[in-house]
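TASK: fixed-backbone design
INPUT:
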């Protein structure tokens, strides 16, 4: 992998980038990826570097508040390194945080993942005691769980407060609070901080929950969960038994995605019941 700056110049992987200069890196593709980048940027800050993250304007205020000392901007400047370009054709082979570390010349380590959200973000969501937050969406078809299964989970959760989060309020899923399409990123963090558990696909919502120490049931398709969930996360990752899995984006199923379809609502409920005892990543094949 190589890094290019905003002028298209190649920067050698692992270069020092000039100890006195600001290190400016751009990541726009995928909020989950930006969150997996943050531990690497913190490590650079701790080494004495001045670090700048360039990303989407909608994410910038929350990222500034969560990362003290990290300069967050929305426009590339001369010399900004393009992490989108560097990873655009890379298939997962290790945790993305480690990939980012290698690109930026940061020694791999035990990556701390926990952060605290400002109390003001979570306070509006304390009206319900420990809801389950369910994010039934995923951007890529290989990460989408059948909506019929999502409705089954909602039915099985009757008696426990259920909040939905995501971008679109379609399709309809029975719940106590449908927050889809209504939250800023700060509010999304606040709602997840108030949760007793989170259910989601391989998505930013799952990354947020792990950052906050909220236990997670994560539903995976062809990507190996070890490349997206750090070992210390309070998470149960569900993967479907299939001979072609994990394909890690080298898909051979022609869009059938049997791996994720093999995971049933009953598997999610079993994992949800297990969560209070989970202290480290568990991967269940079903």
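OUTPUT:
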């Amino acid at each position: 992998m190589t890094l290019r700056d905003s002028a298209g110049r190649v920067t050698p992987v692992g270069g020092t980038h000039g100890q006195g200069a600001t290190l400016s890196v751009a990541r726009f593709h995928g909020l989950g990826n930006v969150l997996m980048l943050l531990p690497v940027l913190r490590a650079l800050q701790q080494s004495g570097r001045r670090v700048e993250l360039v990303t989407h304007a909608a994410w910038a205020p929350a990222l500034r508040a969560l990362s003290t000392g990290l300069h967050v901007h929305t426009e590339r400047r001369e010399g900004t390194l393009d992490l989108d370009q560097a990873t655009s054709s890379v298939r997962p082979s290790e945790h993305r945080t480690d990939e980012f570390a290698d690109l930026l010349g940061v020694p791999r380590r035990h990556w701390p993942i926990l952060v605290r959200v400002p109390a003001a973000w979570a306070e509006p969501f304390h009206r319900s005691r420990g809801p389950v937050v369910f994010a039934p969406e995923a951007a890529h078809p290989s990460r989408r769980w059948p909506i019929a299964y999502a409705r089954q989970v909602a039915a099985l959760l009757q008696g426990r407060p259920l909040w939905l989060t995501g971008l679109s309020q379609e399709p309809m899923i029975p719940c106590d609070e449908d927050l889809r399409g209504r939250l800023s990123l700060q509010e999304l963090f606040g709602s997840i901080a108030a949760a007793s558990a989170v259910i989601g696909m391989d998505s930013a919502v799952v990354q947020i929950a792990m950052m906050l120490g909220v236990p997670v049931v994560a539903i995976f398709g062809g990507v190996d969960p070890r490349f997206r969930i750090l070992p210390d996360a309070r998470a149960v990752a569900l993967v479907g038994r299939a001979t072609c899995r994990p394909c890690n984006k080298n898909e051979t199923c022609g869009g059938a995605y049997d791996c994720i379809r093999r995971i049933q609502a009953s598997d999610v409920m079993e994992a949800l019941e297990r969560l209070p005892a989970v202290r480290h990543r568990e991967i269940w094949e079903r």
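COMMENT: The first helix runs from residue 31 to 46.
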